[in-house]
Amino acid sequence: MHSLQDFAAEKVAGLEARRLRRTLAETTRTDGLWVERDGRRLLSFSCNDYLNLTHHPAVKAAAIAAVETYGAGAGASRLVTGNYPLLEQLEKRLARLKGTDAACVFGSGYLANLGIIPSLVGPGDLVAVDELAHACIRAGAKLSGAEGVVFRHNDVAHLEALLRERRQRHRHALVATDGVFSMDGDLAPLDLLSDVCRAWDAWLLNDDAHGLGVVGQGRGAVRAFEGRADVPLQMGTLSKAVGAYGGYLCASKPVVDFIKTRARTLIYSTALPPAAAAAALAALDLIESDERLTAAPLAKARAFTRAAGLPEATSAVVPVIVGEAGAALDASRFLEGKGFLVVAIRPPTVPEGTARLRLAFTAGHPEDEVARLADLIRTRILGR
Ligand SMILES: Cc1ncc(COP(=O)(O)O)c(C=O)c1O
After folding, report:
1. Following DSSP, what letter does each residue of 66-126 receive, concatenated?
2. Smallest Cα–Cα separation from 317: which of 289, 303, 297, 292?
3. Helices in 121-215 by DSSP H: which ranges?
4. For 102-154, how does the pLDDT look when each residue is reduced to its tens digit (9 = 90+)?
5. Could you give the 3-state DSSP secondary structure of residue 55?
């Protein structure tokens, strides 16, 4: 028993010394914008609630009504008795929004990638992943048992070189990327990636966690390429712009049929709670019908990048790279003192030497506060 405690304590002390220890800070969110931490009210630029829908009255009312009808939990896996009617409605809506024949809802985005990737590729296959892709894509790739290769960030020529060298030795190949990169906010070149995938018979998976509701008129990263990107596997989450919880895959009917009979994180995990599915349905109503709402986060992000003298934002996520972990923590603490919550992101979430402030802009951020934050970051953090 002692060796276990010694092991854990030593690990924590080592991380602490390098300012890489993570701790959980209690945070109260009673609207989609402001949070309370340590008794202080802060304007949050760290929630992925891009459309502030977590607290939208229609979304909350839908969740409450679903609890009244279907209960607090699903009671079992979808393949047993957990497949309550809202899930099929949600799948139809997601497929319509993404322009695919079918969809499959999972317990979360992380669970979706952990289920999808190993269902489609395994030993004898190849899986190529962008070096900055989300942890759950990497985890799914590793779990699959396929040969894994990493291509340089958004480097289509590098991906093509890897496929040229290796594709023929493998039965199937899957290429996976974030559509909007979670820590950098840039878009993957899905049009060019889909051309390369077509040429080498590789299956392209786009993780649209940060695209849905924000880019492509709210339809996500594939739509942003206006028909030039052919992406057969479009997964994402219901926990960011959609403001609820859950994950999904939109794809052709045969692929979705196959995933529903094979994905272990769907089969061996309880279905998501009815409140989450109902909230997501209500949120999708708003996303589909309100173009002004879905245009707002990017507009706020661009107002910020203009005022801060940073490259123009291409999504609601804007990184301010400061370098060392300690400097990022200090910058975050400084902004907290000024009334802003901007959490520092450190390795291993981002590469060594690129610790940063990651700003997430939302539809409801007040313009004067965005301008004040930009001024503080430009003058006091970037020193310009
Ligand atoms: C790109 C990306 N994919 C997947 C996920 C996981 O989604 P979820 O929070 O629904 O598990 C996240 C964030 O959490 C993400 O940023």
Report:
1. HHHHH-SS--SBTTTT---HHHHHHHHHHHHHHT-SEEEEES-HHHHHHHHHHHH--TT-E
2. 297
3. 135-144, 156-166, 190-199
4. 999 999 999 999 999 999 999 999 999 999 999 999 999 999 999 999 999 99
5. helix
CB 373 within 8 A of CB 341: no
Ligand 1 atom nearest the C-alpha of 111 is 11
- Determine contact, residues 200/167, Cβ cutoff 8 Å: yes
* Helix (H), strand (E) counts: the chain: 14, 14
Q: Tell me, in angstroms, the distance from the centre of ligand 1 to residue 377's CA.
A: 27
Q: What is the pLDDT of residue 1?
A: 63
User: Which of 50, 114, 182 to mutate for ligand 1's pocket (most ligand atoms within 8 Å of CB)?
Assistant: 182
Q: Which residues are catalytic?
A: 182, 210, 240
- Closest residue by CA, ligand 1 atom 12: 209
Kindly tell me if the per-residue pLDDT of 13 is higher than 90: yes
Evaluate whether 336 touches 369 at the Cβ level (below 8 Å). Answer: no
Strands 28-29 and 34-37: antiparallel
The residue whose CA is least distant from atom 7 of ligand 1 is: 109
- Average the pLDDT over 294-321 and give the result: 98
Sign of CA dihedral 342, 343, 349, 351: positive
Ligand 1 environment, Cβ below 6 A: 108-110, 134, 136, 178, 182, 207, 209-210, 237, 239, 247
Sign of the CA dihedral with 232 first, then 245, 114, and 349 last: positive
CA of 237 to the centre of ligand 1 (A): 6
The rounded radius of gyration (Å) of the Cα atoms in the chain is 21
CA 116–ligand 1 middle distance (angstroms): 14
For the chain, give the mean pLDDT: 97
**pTM for the model:** 0.96
Q: Is the pLDDT confidence value at 71 over 80?
A: yes
176-207 residue pLDDT tens: 999 999 999 999 999 999 999 999 999 999 99
Dihedral (Cα; 361, 365, 370, 372), 10-degree rounding: -140
